[in-house]
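Re: [ENG-882] Designed sequences occasionally contain unexpected residues at chain ends

Forwarding the minimal case from QA. C-alpha cells:
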C-alpha cells in the first residue's frame, strides 16, 4: 500500500520510535493538532495509526480535540499543542474535562510543545512541561529570531509513584 512504502522510505521518526517502544511496553499515541500543520499532521497521525492497526500493544487518539487525556494508574497525563488555552488555565480545564480521572489520580502532568523550548512549571498539583521540537527553523521562526535546541523527549510514568 502507498502509506507503507512512504513510511518505509522516509524512515519516519514516529514509526521507528513506536516500533522500539512496543517491544518493551505498551504505548499510547496522541495526535495534538497544531497551528503549523493542522491538516497534514492529522493525516500523518492517521497513517501511523493505520501502519500499526494490527498491533495490540499500542493505542491511538487521533481525534482533532485540542486537549487529550490519558489515565495510567495514579497518573493523569494530558497533552495539547499549547497555542490555545493559556498555560495557567490548563489544570482547571484538566479537572473539568476529566472529573472521574482527576478524582482517581494523584500525579497529574500536562505536556505542550507550542513554544519549542524547554520549560517546566507546577501549577497547583499539575506539572506542565513545554517540550522542545525536532523541527528545523522555518522562515517565520528565522525572521523572528526564534532559535531552539532541537530534541525529542520521552517521559516514563510509574503506575503508582508518578
Amino acid at each position: 500500500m502507498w502509506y507503507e512504502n512512504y513510511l518505509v522510505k522516509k524512515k519516519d521518526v514516529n514509526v521507528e520510535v513506536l516500533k522500539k517502544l512496543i517491544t518493551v511496553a505498551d504505548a499510547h499515541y496522541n495526535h495534538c493538532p497544531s497551528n503549523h500543520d493542522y491538516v497534514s499532521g492529522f493525516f500523518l497521525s492517521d497513517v501511523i495509526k493505520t501502519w500499526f492497526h494490527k498491533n495490540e500493544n499500542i493505542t491511538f487518539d487521533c481525534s482533532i480535540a485540542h486537549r487529550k487525556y490519558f489515565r495510567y494508574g495514579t497518573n493523569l497525563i494530558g497533552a495539547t499543542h499549547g497555542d490555545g488555552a493559556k498555560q495557567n488555565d490548563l489544570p482547571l480545564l484538566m479537572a473539568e474535562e476529566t472529573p472521574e480521572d482527576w478524582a482517581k489520580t494523584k500525579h497529574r502532568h500536562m505536556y505542550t510543545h507550542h513554544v519549542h523550548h524547554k520549560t517546566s512549571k507546577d501549577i497547583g498539583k499539575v506539572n506542565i512541561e513545554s517540550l522542545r521540537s525536532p523541527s528545523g527553523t522555518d522562515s517565520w521562526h528565522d525572521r523572528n529570531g526564534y532559535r531552539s535546541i532541537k530534541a525529542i523527549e520521552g517521559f516514563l510514568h510509574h503506575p503508582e509513584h508518578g
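QA comment: On inspection the terminal residues look reasonable. The chain has a mean pLDDT of 85. Proposing we downgrade this to a documentation issue.
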